[in-house]
Structure formats: structure tokens, C-alpha cells
């Protein structure tokens, strides 16, 4: 399970980055095409799956990832929770807002990988 979490983490970050750049590239559009919404769903699901896999690895395999690595996982989950709460505001310019959201969470994921094993 630890290997799956480690190897798919990079894939989840790449997916978020690519879909985020796609959204920012369409910033002038007030409506996004349907495939973009599917891609956003896949990107969000990929990172949330990584967070859940991290929790499973930490509890089942007794791995100590460090406080900062766990912190960034929690921040990713909370960012998506706040995005869900404010989803009505995202309807104004969905491509831009979802693109920026995914680029932000991509950065959090990169920082999470960099801080594996580091404590505060």
C-alpha cells in the first residue's frame, strides 16, 4: 500500500497541474465545456484518494510520514472542503476558479512530497 501511495502521488499531482493549466487557459470563458468538469472531478478524486491512502498507510502499516507531510494532506482535504462550500461562487467563472484551485492543490501536493519525514 505504501508503494501505491508513493507512486500514484506524482500522478495525482500531474493530473491536477494539467487540468489546472487547462482551466486557467480558458479564463475568459464564462462556461466551461463538459469534458473540463469531468477532468476536474478526476483530478479532485485523485488527490483525495491519495489523502485517504496516506491515512490507511499511516494507520495500517505504522509508517511515520512526519508532521509536515500529514499537515499538507489535511490542508489538501480542507481546501477541497472549502471549495465545495463555496461552489456557488465558482459558477461565475468555473474554468478560472477550478483551474486556480487545482494549481493550488498541486502546489500543496508537491510541498507534501518534499516534506516527507520532516517534523515541525
Concise description?
The protein has 120 residues and is mostly helical. The protein has 5 helices and no strands.
Question: What does it look like?
Answer:
The protein has 120 residues and is mainly α. Helices cover 79% and strands 0% of the residues. It contains five helices and no strands. It has helices at 2-25, 34-60, 67-85, 87-90, 94-114. Helix 1 packs antiparallel against helix 5 (94-114), helix 2 runs antiparallel to helix 3 (67-85) and helix 2 packs parallel to helix 5. The longest helix is centred in the middle third of the chain and has 27 residues, at 34-60. The chain is elongated. The two termini are 26 Å apart.
Round the Cα radius of gyration to an integer and report it. 15 Å
Uncertain parts: none
Task: Tell me the overall shape.
Answer: elongated
Number of strands: 0
Cα separation of the termini: 26 Å
Secondary structural class: mainly alpha
Kindly state the mean pLDDT as a whole number? 93
How many distinct helices?
Answer: 5
| Main beta sheet strand tally, sense and closure | none
DSSP helix fraction: over 70%
Along the chain, the helix and strand elements come as HHHHH
Relative strand content: under 5%
Amino acid at each position: 500500500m505504501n508503494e501505491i501511495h508513493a507512486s500514484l502521488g506524482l500522478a495525482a499531482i500531474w493530473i491536477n497541474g494539467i487540468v489546472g493549466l487547462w482551466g486557467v487557459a480558458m479564463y475568459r470563458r464564462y462556461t466551461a465545456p463538459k469534458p473540463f468538469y469531468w477532468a476536474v472531478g478526476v483530478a479532485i478524486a485523485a488527490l483525495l484518494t491519495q489523502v485517504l491512502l496516506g491515512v490507511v498507510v499511516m494507520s495500517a502499516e505504522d509508517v511515520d510520514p512526519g508532521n509536515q507531510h500529514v499537515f499538507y494532506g489535511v490542508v489538501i482535504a480542507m481546501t477541497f472542503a472549502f471549495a465545495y462550500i463555496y461552489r456557488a461562487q465558482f459558477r461565475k467563472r468555473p474554468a478560472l476558479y477550478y483551474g486556480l484551485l487545482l494549481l493550488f492543490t498541486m502546489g500543496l501536493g508537491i510541498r507534501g512530497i518534499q516534506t516527507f519525514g520532516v517534523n515541525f
